[in-house]
């Protein structure tokens, strides 16, 4: 930050006073030769520092508006997507700043709540998104609009794949041993714990067998958990086509599963919901 003329001149005077060879410069007159020279030099330095501040500000503006092509920048830019079914939202290139943005920023039109950017081989980038909370997939018009928005600022040489999918589905088969005093609430509490685990899973995160056990074990009243099977599937797959993450009888233990949609919900297939597959045993 630029100093004032007075500040700079005072530093020069303080240094003069420390130099015995300059002890004769004692006149307090503003027209004293040494005083004039101090003022002229201090003025030049102050102007130079002000020019440096302006230059720094220009550089910071350029850096702030630059496209760094990082995953974090891409995620932040994607989350700024605006959509309305009644008012056209068109991102434009500002030919002064060379930044693509909406002419009018309206955060109420920011429909995206989840976004993950995955860099892949051969200069491919997947942008995975969802809206609302809990998350759901974008509609076809929303996804088409988002894809066009990304196209307006995508980097040369990179191929962007924008996806929004309905949730993965998870089945958990387990025997839950609990204190009989909690009989009235144990099933509700355990299912709620699993729903909380899924809701808190980072977007595009992984499902862990141990985390599932830990979530159940943390419920008040639960004394032990015997996990029998964990099956996860994409929403477009049938139950039979799901991936077995854990199976006690066959020894399958895949440890973790990368979510395809980016988020997961309870299995919806009849007879495979949590209420169907969790057995509660009073101990």
What does this structure look like?
It is a single chain. With 283 residues, the chain is α/β, with parallel strands linked by helices. The chain has three domains: 5-65, no CATH class; 71-163, no CATH class; 168-282, no CATH class. 34% of the residues lie in helices and 25% in strands. The chain contains seven helices and 13 strands. The protein has helices at residues 5-17, 33-65, 71-79, 140-153, 186-200, 209-217, 274-277; strands at residues 92-94, 99-101, 112-120, 124-131, 159-163, 168-178, 206-208, 222-233, 243-247, 252-253, 256-258, 264-266, 278-282. Strands 6, 8, 9, 10, 12 and 13 form a six-stranded mixed sheet that branches. Strands 3-4-5 form a three-stranded mixed sheet. It has a two-stranded antiparallel ribbon with strand order 1-2. The longest helix has 33 residues, at 33-65. It is elongated, with a radius of gyration of 32 Å. The model has no long low-confidence stretch (mean pLDDT 94).
